[in-house]
Design brief:
This protein is an all-alpha fold. It is flat, with a radius of gyration of 28 Å. The termini are far apart. The longest helix is centred in the N-terminal third of the chain and has 16 residues, at about 5-20. It contains 18 helices and no strands. Helix 13 (about 215-230) runs parallel beside helix 15 (about 250-265).
């Protein structure tokens, strides 16, 4: 504890410098005090903040780690430095470092649900899906009636290449939360779609529609999948169904269809979709996309005419 009046005044001055954005002055004072009182955590914290606010993230991490080491040795884990490091590592997308500090924290608090969840997510982000599976299985053992943990587990299983087991995990979540099973079917459908397995994604989205046929999002997703499967007419029908479910979103739905068609090189069909979007919502981005679709078809004159027209409106 700092007792010398002169040193206390230095701490006050350092805090004032920090508030004023005079980081170099604050750092110099805090480093001086830290040498005299290396155990004073308030000074270590000031140093960490001063370095972080001045853009010297690595130095900030160094001092937050000093605080973390002390936190881990206490009977009661406060986790303040841990939380700051988690925030920094996430911002920097340093998932390896994030995984390491989460492992250390869980080693001290092995049954802490929040720490286990953080560790599982870190493992998934750092390319360690098998370890993430182990963590989520432990969470399920602690709270077996929480559908969220089954979803986490399902995502990790899918990342580990165990798509069948992943689907079972999501189905288990739907059994725990039976009021909206389509939510969970859709989560696994999205994973299949992102992995390029459009047939499985189609099967699961159709399952969503069977449970909740009034959800326009499901028809849009089905339409996207059908485009990738080359079933363009059926894709358009799926989007038409979305419009029937929610007429107010018609412009946005047809614009979404147009963008999917544009990305997959189906320029003629994209022209039709963007044209429909414009009939509902004559928005500038839709016209720009329509022009891009005409360009894709090789119809430069039509594209230029559209661009001239929308530029007149500006």
């Amino acid at each position: 504890m700092i007792e010398k009046p002169k040193t206390k005044r230095k701490v006050d001055a350092a805090e004032k410098f920090l508030k004023q954005g005079k980081y170099r002055e604050a750092i110099d004072l805090c480093e001086e005090i830290h040498k005299e009182y290396p155990e004073e955590e308030s000074v270590v914290l000031l140093l960490a903040w001063a370095y972080y606010d001045s853009g010297q993230t690595e130095q900030a991490i160094k001092y937050f780690n000093i605080l973390l080491e002390r936190e881990l040795k206490r009977k009661v884990f406060t986790g303040f430095a841990f939380d700051e490091l988690v925030r920094i590592y996430k911002q920097n997308k340093d998932f390896q470092a994030l995984t390491e500090i989460c492992e250390r924290a869980v080693g001290v608090q092995p049954d802490d649900i929040c720490l286990l969840t953080e560790l599982g997510n870190a493992c998934l982000q750092s390319g360690k899906p098998r370890r993430a599976c182990d963590i989520y299985e432990k969470l399920i053992g602690i709270e077996s009636d929480n559908p969220v943990y089954y979803c986490y587990w399902g995502e990790a299983l899918f990342a580990a290449g165990l798509s069948g087991e992943s689907e079972k995990a999501y189905l288990k979540a739907s059994e725990i939360d039976p009021d909206q099973p389509d939510r969970y079917y859709f989560k696994i459908a999205v994973l299949f779609q992102q992995a390029g397995n459009d047939k499985e994604a189609e099967r699961l989205v159709n399952k969503c529609i069977a449970v909740n046929p009034s959800n326009s999002l499901y028809y849009c997703s089905l339409g996207d999948i059908l485009v990738h499967l080359g079933q363009l007419q059926n894709a358009v029908k799926a989007y038409e169904k979305a419009v029937q479910c929610d007429h107010s979103g018609a412009g946005a739905y047809y614009n979404r269809l147009g963008n999917v068609l544009l990305r997959t090189g189906n320029f003629s069909q994209a022209v039709d979709a963007f044209s429909k979007a414009i009939t509902y919502d004559p928005l500038r981005p839709y016209y720009l996309s329509l022009a891009a679709a005409y360009q894709g078809m090789g119809f430069a004159d039509q594209a230029d005419a559209i661009l001239r027209e929308i530029n007149k409106v500006q």
